[in-house]
Amino acid sequence: MRTPRTWDFMETTFAALLAHGAYLIIGGLSLTLIFSAQGLGNSQAELNALAQQGRWQGISVATGSLAAIAVLWIAIRKAGREFSEYLALNWPSPKDLVMALVFTGIVLAAEMMLLPDSAASDPTLVVKSAGALFILLVSGCILGPMMEEFVFRGFLFRGWSQSFIGPIGSILIISIIGAESFKVARGAGMADLITSKICKRAALD
To answer: Per 3-state DSSP, what percentage of the chain is helix, strand, and coil (rounded to 5)?
Structure first.
């Protein structure tokens, strides 16, 4: 029987990088397969434009987030620990999840109705179907934020806080990394980050 343990600093960092890589690769591959099957993305410019639309971005974030969470689950089970215990999870109630979806849906709908110019210029709001909107809401309100919390405030903090940098150092470093990651994602566009290396080759071949 495996003795329960906590991954050290380097092991935690390596596992988090694997989770990040899984997020990018699986998210990009999911779009690549869909675009190839539907004959979309005949040029890099068209490919990037499509990937920024909410209907596709939701799928990419959802599949990538699930892949990243799976990597964390494997790493935690390899350490002989329970997933929820290792990450110190306090699961939200179904009511909280439903309320998050409802409120976000209201905000998006209001923005598209009251600010049509903004909606037209924001590719993330291009969903074109109720199903695509639902996927965008689930990925944006649940899976994406959940994955980020698992990686940053769960997995990284658990391993780093018990290493040589301690809890305070972990909080500072995780805060900086999280802020920079969010800035990059907002500035460059999450879809561009996901598709720049994967879709460029696969969809154009």
So the answer is: 80, 0, 20
At residue 10, the pLDDT reads 95
> Tokens 């199903």 — which residue?
131
Domain limits, the chain: 9-192
pLDDT average, residue stretch 73-83: 93
Element (H, E) at 166: helix 166-188
User: Do the Cβ atoms of 69 and 139 come closer than 8 Å?
Assistant: no
Token look-up 């109720």 returns 130
Judge contact between 22 and 71, C-beta under 8 A: yes
Output 201 or 122, whichever has higher pLDDT: 122
Of the pLDDT bands very low, low, confident and very high (cuts 50, 70, 90), residue 36 is confident
Say whether pLDDT at 46 is over 70. Answer: no
The encoded tokens of residue 146 equal 């959940």
Structural tokens at position 167: 């809890």
Structure tokens at 64: 């990538």
Rounded distance between C-alpha atoms, residue 27 and residue 23, angstroms: 6
Residue with token string 């620990």: 81
Helices 130-138, 94-114: axis angle to 10 degrees equals 120
CA distance 171 to 163: 12
Can you give the pLDDT at residue 139?
83
CA distance 13 to 7: 9
pLDDT average, residue stretch 38-44: 67
Rounded Cα distance, 96 and 131, in Å: 21
